[in-house]
Write a structure and sequence with these properties.
The complex is a heterotrimer. Chain A is α/β, with parallel strands linked by helices. Chain A has 2 domains: 225 residues, no CATH class; 102 residues, abc type-2 transporter like domain (abc type-2 transporter like fold, 3-Layer(aba) Sandwich), CATH 3.40.1710. Chain A is built from 14 helices and 5 strands. In chain A, helix 2 runs antiparallel to helix 7, helix 7 packs antiparallel against helix 11 and helix 10 runs antiparallel to helix 11. The N terminus of chain A is likely disordered. Chain C is α/β, with parallel strands linked by helices. In chain C, 66% of the residues lie in helices and 9% in strands. Chain C is built from 14 helices and 5 strands. Chain C has a 4-stranded mixed β-sheet with strand order 2-1-3-4, with helices on both faces. In chain C, helix 13 packs antiparallel against helix 14. The longest helix of chain C has 32 residues. Classes of the chains: A alpha/beta, B alpha/beta, C alpha/beta. Chains A and C meet through helix 2, strand 4, helix 6, strand 5 and helix 7 of A and helix 2, helix 5, strand 4, helix 6 and strand 5 of C. Strand 4 of chain A pairs parallel with strand 5 of chain C.
Chain lengths: 397, 612, 372
């Protein structure tokens, strides 16, 4: 019985040797367990496709498929008055990059086009437009289809200001003197951090958060629960394996998958979609690693508590993926939500990582924010992984 | 700390809270144990006896709240990890990593237990020999047959030599050949390395090889001692009825078993019937004499199984619910349903198989197999693990298409036949496969409906099977929460609900204790008497004697076919010798595997071997 | 025939029991839908409701003050800082304190009086390009009306042109009016597909599917029996979201309830078909779950829920023809907001029917032919 020596009093050197032996055994077991996890991961097509294929699909969808930007919105123009003044008035729409106007003969036809969603809006030039304009009472009607509200309001705003400016110009001209001595404010907008003003720039960094959450929380939530469900833990527990080793062996491969996902995202973001990298890449990697630990911790915690794949998947969807979509400022700006929802949103680690990654990619190294968000993420990582360790006991009851 | 004892338990209690009902289950009641180091100790007992709970507690997997449990001189409650470093444990359901190969599973456990690489070669070879897995090292564990998985689990547990080896029903579903090998390994480990082995088992012939046996029932220890001491409970009460009539032995056995006030137990053995009388005086009871007819009676030395049966019988009587009632219910099937084929004149062929082949890739699972089964026959499929029994079964039931060959069940091929043809068969699979979260009644109602029963007829059939399989009072229990024996009964009840002509049973008795097996077979023989054709696979070779005819398959090939006695002759024995199916099985399989060294295979010690 | 129906009913009953018996799975079916519909209702908004801004007013003039007061009057813009110099612009934008900064040059008012163009610099934080875009458009509109007022106050002619605006079906252009009806379809979609995907896979994993296959039930009966319960659960979930939409968020319903349910039924049948195919293809629950998830993410994203389908490139728009959710969202919006009849949405019903007609028989075939 070699282990009997463990009970004997130890000398200093014995202690050192024993310690080295324990570390050796720890590493050996960790290696064996990790190799097992990696093999399982590589053999299971469904796991791997979520880890590696889904990110690519999402990248492409977000890069090419999704856009909130209004460009060339079809607008029906009802010319009940075909005078040159009327043509002038609506020329603003033709010149604008936001619209592609279609001339229709009657309001009736325009209505039909709206109903079938062929056009997003209708601009109506009433039959008395030119005479009314001459009398200083020109009137134009803009009608939008309100179902897709955000798009509709952008169209409405663009159309109104384009038409109004044109109107002012027309008035100036008809008034004869180009300068009647009255100045006007001219808006000179500058968009910082997203000079191209494309939603891709802000969606793609958010996607990184989504993908890390997917591999971190969703996949790991399943792996641990699967072992409970299939009873593979019972034999494993009655061995020298320590709970820490089991957890680490689960973390390592999925950490790898997460990093691969991150690399793919960053590469496509930078080179395919031209998203800038204003801040330090190193910092970005550091923050991502931190967040990956948070996500892994959440996944492990969920599955250790539920011990059931179905419940684990539902809960991890509810507490990790959904918040990324809804509450992290990924698609919807948290500034616009009620206060309570805003507070809830900030309880989720994803929200902090989201802010951080957008800043690092689009704005640069803004230190106070980086330090704050990184410390919050670190705290979450320690909390979740610690809890997962506490919950994972080598016990069946 | 005592060196003499590997496990010491004092006043152990264990209570679980059943979440479903909110009741507390008292799983262990005041257990006291002293298991000497270097011994092999067995725990036997029916479902719910607390064997698994006790072993899990020793392994540090369950909290030990009341009483004191010391394993290897350490308190389990305080030092579970230190104990786990020094023991090996095989759970009842060994969770293999199904997507890892056989070799990778083995390597994983060898690595985790710190088996040095140089020590592995020999050990692996030995384990592969025992399990017969050498051909399959690269196969994913999930693609192994049920019995092979069990053997791989065993191999994973035995990769190293611990100080204490805990085995929880290690041989459920394992074929006799591998059991022989397993016991050799275990005994060698004990001899060479002085390790302590604790095993729970439903096989009393295995328990008989241990130095000490604990008989457990409902959380209590009924008896403990050396196997001989326990066998002594049946002293002077064991007899063999040697019959010479044409009637199958199982008919006499059934009659004896039904006479429960006189007979504790009866089993067909060697073409005759072995029985235990209720008390030594009963042997002269005239009622017994008339039951036995012209059979001559020989006194037998009691086996552990006999002692166990006597003990359990006594205990059940003491507790008020009796085995007799169960047997009566089991026998009821015969009286209840009217014989469907009273006209035996034309023995109708119910199942016909010719040159049946099934390949999985280039692996031939079943190779040119032919046989026919007649109405009312009990037809046994025997063979080592991975022989292709389950594959044959699945093809017969239409769950798997055959690669080639002819196949007819009740006159049709179930895979291509109209759905209604399936109403004629009942199927009880190897693994419990009813809806675990539905209650007993809901399962019965569902399957009844699926077979087109409804209204009054459904109610009547449900009432009948509930009574027949003694499921009364469990209507609302979720079937997944039933103890193993009840699950099996429910599965049978579902299989018979629609009164099929043919019943398929895949290893129905694996892991069940002798008591439950007696009831089970009483039901089967009663059913067969009503004209139901029964196809069954089993690993208990003594059960082959209940069958009218058997086939023995190995590696996909059909090796022997006929009545048990014909197979005994095919194995190369004299027709009039006392037949031993275990022996016949081993001989036939070994003949097939090593044609030159026939008859020199290992023989399992199954109590005494009697020569007529 | 009667036997067939009876067997199907038996299977439906069993499926319902299996799904609803466990209290935790009942919770999982109701709570997330409820929480999500509330959450989406509040959080999913593209409407600019709170735009913090900072001012660098180097002109310190009456005109700039007047313009700013118009901005404040909207209720959307809130001044969070008054800046002293240009360096501070960087700070307030960087730390996210302000979404935009308005910078009035030193001669802003002078230019106005001189009848010249007076530039107003608007610096926007476009990390969220949507908010930035809305803010820019809002500022533009406010400045336009300021210009008109200015003209009048300076004795210029009354505005020659006025623009009347109207938004159909959503007069205040609230995102919620768009999101919530879409949720009626999409929230139910998520769990219905997941539930269906698990149904056969679970039976295969637990071995009960073999027991089912040896009964006289035909694959098509099993298929129907497996499809009906998730369809019903999906309809219940939809109803739940609809109640939240109608009564909690008070989005008025223009269409007929019956039309809506008829459309939902078509949608549920086709999504359950998709779920059944996934289920029949998967060897175990884990695969079913992951494949279902993997399919649902793109389907949700490309349904018009996140961004309009018309904004997508042509090839992707074609792909969405295989997406039941795309048609369901269109259908429900039309019925719920526009109040059209079932005949006006036939072009949504056709693809849904086609999807169901392909997936359902495929799944039934797979039940017996896919060997796992």
């Amino acid at each position: 019985m070699p282990e009997a020596a463990a009970n004997a009093p130890m000398t200093e050197t014995d202690h050192g040797v024993a310690q080295r032996r324990t570390v050796g055994a720890f590493l050996r077991r960790l290696y064996a367990l990790t190799r097992k996890e990696v093999r399982q991961l590589l053999r299971d097509k469904s796991n791997l496709s979520i880890g590696l294929l889904l990110p690519v699909i999402l990248m492409l969808i977000f890069g090419y498929g999704l856009s909130l930007d209004v460009r060339n919105a079809p607008v029906a123009v009802v010319m009940e008055d075909a005078s040159p003044a009327a043509m002038d008035a609506i020329s603003a729409l033709q010149l604008s990059p936001y619209f592609s106007p279609v001339l229709v003969r009657s309001m009736h036809e325009a209505n039909d086009k709206m109903l079938s969603r062929e056009v997003d809006a209708v601009v109506r030039v009433p039959s008395d437009f030119s005479s009314a304009l001459a009398a200083g009472q020109g009137r134009l009607q803009v009608i939008v289809h309100g179902a897709e509200a955000s798009r509709a309001s952008i169209i409405l705003n663009y159309a109104t200001s384009a038409l109004l400016q044109q109107g002012v110009r027309l008035q100036d001209r008809s008034g004869g003197a180009s300068g009647d001595g009255i100045g006007q404010v001219q808006v000179d907008s500058r968009l910082w951090f997203n000079a191209a003003n494309t939603s891709t720039w802000y969606l793609v960094p958010g996607l990184i958060v989504l993908i890390m959450t997917l591999t971190g929380a969703f996949l790991t939530a399943l792996v641990m629960a699967r072992e409970w469900e299939r009873g593979t833990f019972e034999a494993l527990f009655v061995s020298p394996v320590k709970p820490v080793e089991i957890l680490l062996a689960k973390i390592i491969p999925y950490f790898g998958v997460g990093i691969i996902g991150l690399t793919m995202c960053l590469t496509t973001a930078r080179f395919l979609f031209g998203v800038p990298m204003e801040g330090s890449l190193l910092l970005l990697l550091f923050a991502s690693v931190l967040y990956l630990f948070v996500a892994l911790g959440i996944g492990l915690l969920i599955s250790s508590v539920t011990r059931n794949q179905f419940m684990a998947s539902q809960i991890s969807l509810l507490v990790s993926l959904l918040p990324v979509f809804m509450l992290s400022g990924f698609m919807f700006d948290l500034r616009n939500v009620p206060f309570v929802i805003n507070v809830i949103g900030h309880l989720f680690p994803a929200t902090h990582f989201m802010a951080l990654i957008k800043t690092l990619m689009l704005a640069g190294n803004i230190w106070p924010q980086i330090i704050l968000e990184c410390s919050i993420l670190t705290a979450y990582a320690v909390l979740f992984i610690g809890l997962a360790r506490l919950v994972t006991r080598k016990r069946l009851d | 700390m005592s060196d003499a004892h590997a496990v010491v338990g004092r006043h152990l209690h264990k209570r679980f809270l059943d979440k479903e009902s909110g009741r507390t289950i008292h799983a262990l009641k005041d257990i006291n144990l002293d298991i000497p180091a270097g011994s092999i100790t067995a725990f036997v007992g029916p479902d719910g006896a607390g064997k698994t709970t006790l072993i899990r507690m020793m392994a540090g997997l369950l909290r030990c709240e009341e009483g004191e449990l010391q394993v290897l001189g350490l308190d389990v409650a305080r030092h579970p990890q230190q104990i786990q470093d020094r023991i090996s444990y095989m759970p009842q359901r060994f969770g293999l990593y199904e997507d890892l190969s056989v070799q990778e599973n083995l390597d994983l456990y060898a690595d985790l237990h710190g088996v040095p690489p140089e020590a592995r070669g020999q050990r692996y070879q030995r384990l592969m020999e025992m399990t017969g897995l050498a051909r399959f090292t690269d196969r994913p564990a999930g693609k192994l047959s049920g019995g092979m998985k069990q053997k791989l689990g065993l191999a994973c547990t035995l990769v190293r030599s611990p100080e204490l080896l805990l085995l929880d029903e290690p041989t459920v579903g394992v074929d006799p050949l591998s059991r022989v090998e397993l016991w050799e390994i275990v005994e060698q480990l004990r001899r060479d390395e002085h390790l302590t082995v604790i095993i729970s088992t439903a096989y009393l012939d295995e328990a008989e090889r241990c130095s000490r046996v604990y008989v457990m029932h409902e959380g209590e220890i009924l008896a403990e001692g050396a196997p001989e001491a326990l066998s002594a409970h049946a002293r002077d009460r064991c007899f063999m009825a040697v019959t010479h009539s044409a009637e199958p032995a199982r008919a006499l056995q059934a009659r004896l078993l039904d006479a429960c006030e006189l007979v504790v137990d009866a089993v067909p053995q060697g073409g005759h019937v072995r029985f235990i009388v209720a008390n030594p005086d009963s042997q002269h009871d005239p009622r017994l004499r008339s039951l036995l007819g012209d059979a001559e009676v020989q006194a037998m030395t009691p086996r552990l199984e006999d002692g166990f049966m006597v003990l359990m019988r006594r205990r059940l009587q003491h507790m008020g619910h009796s085995h007799e009632a169960s047997l009566a219910a089991a026998a009821m099937s015969a009286e209840e349903s009217t014989p469907q084929a009273s006209a035996d004149a034309t023995r109708e062929v119910m199942i016909e198989v010719r040159d049946l082949v099934r390949r999985f890739g280039d692996f031939v699972a079943v190779n040119s197999t032919s046989f026919a089964v007649q109405r009312g026959e009990i037809f046994g499929l025997l063979g080592p693990n991975g022989a292709g029994k389950t594959t044959t079964f699945r093809m017969l039931c239409g769950l798997l298409p055959a690669s080639s060959g002819f196949l007819q069940v009740a006159g049709v091929n179930l895979r291509t036949a109209r759905a209604d043809a399936r109403r004629r068969i009942g199927y009880v699979s190897q693994k419990f496969s009813l809806y675990g979260n539905l209650s007993v009644m809901e399962n019965l109602e569902f399957f009844g409906g699926a077979y087109g029963l409804r209204g009054k007829r459904l109610r009547r059939r449900i009432d009948t099977v509930m009574e027949q399989f003694e499921l009364g009072g469990l209507e609302r229990t979720p079937s997944g929460h039933l103890p193993g024996g009840f699950k099996q009964r429910l599965a049978m009840a579902v299989g018979l609900l629609h009164e099929p002509d043919i019943l398929f049973l895949d290893e129905p008795t694996s892991g069940t204790d002798p008591l439950a097996r007696r009831e089970f077979w009483r039901r089967i023989t009663a059913l067969a008497d009503t004209g139901v054709t029964i196809i069954i696979t089993t690993h208990f070779l003594d059960e082959a004697e209940y069958c009218d005819r058997i086939v023995i398959q190995d590696a996909g090939e059909l090796k022997a076919l006929g009545t048990p006695r014909e197979v005994w002759v095919q194995a190369g024995h004299r027709a009039d010798s006392f037949l031993n199916m275990e022996r016949a099985f081993i001989d036939i399989v070994n003949q097939g595997r090593h044609p030159k060294t026939a008859n020199t295979g290992a023989v399992i010690a199954t109590g005494e071997v009697l020569h007529a | 025939m009667l036997n067939k129906i009876f067997r199907i009913l038996t299977l439906c009953r069993k499926e319902m029991l299996a799904i609803l018996k466990d209290p935790s799975s009942r919770i999982v079916l109701i709570m997330p839908v409820f929480l999500q519909s509330l959450l989406f209702g509040y959080a999913a908004t593209y409407d600019l409701t709170n735009a913090p801004y900072a001012v660098l007013d180097q002109s310190r003039s009456g005109a700039s003050v007047e313009l700013l007061s118009m901005l404040d009057g909207t209720g959307v813009f809130h001044r969070v800082a008054t800046l002293e110099n240009e360096q501070q612009i960087q700070d307030v934008i960087d730390n996210g304190e302000a979404l935009l900064v308005l910078q009035f040059g030193p001669d802003f008012e002078r230019n106005l009086y001189a009848g010249q163009a007076a530039p107003l610099q608007v610096i926007l934080d476009a990390r969220n390009s949507n908010s930035a875009g809305s803010a820019a458009a809002d500022v533009g509109a406010i400045v336009a009306s300021f210009n008109q007022q200015w003209r009048q106050s300076q004795g210029g002619s009354a505005p020659a042109l006025t623009i009347e605006t109207r938004a159909w079906y959503n007069p205040n252009l609230e995102t919620r009016w768009f999101i919530m009806p879409s949720m009626i379809a999409s929230l139910a979609f998520l769990q219905t597909v997941m539930l269906t995907a698990l149904s056969v896979a679970r039976e295969r994993e637990q071995g009960t599917f073999d027991q089912l296959l040896v009964t006289p039930m035909s694959p098509s009966e099993i298929m129907v029996g497996k499809a009906v319960p998730p369809i019903m659960i999906g309809l219940v979930q939809s109803t739940l979201v609809m109640l939240v939409t109608r009564f909690w968020f008070e989005v008025p319903m223009a269409g007929a309830l019956l039309t809506l349910y008829l459309g939902l039924l078509f949608f549920m049948v086709s999504s359950v078909g998709v779920g059944l195919v996934i289920s029949a293809l998967s060897a175990n629950m884990q695969q079913a779950m992951l494949y279902a998830f993997m399919l649902m993410m793109p389907l949700m994203l490309l349904s018009g829920l996140a961004t309009p389908v018309r904004n997508m490139p042509e090839p992707i728009q074609i792909l969405t023809y295989a997406n039941p959710l795309r048609f369901a969202i269109d259908l429900i919006q039309r019925v719920y907001l526009e109040g059209v009849s079932i005949f006006a949405v036939w072009h949504d019903l056709v693809p849904l029917t086609v999807i169901a007609l392909i997936t359902m028989p495929w799944a039934a075939w797979l039940f017996r032919h896919r060997l796992v």
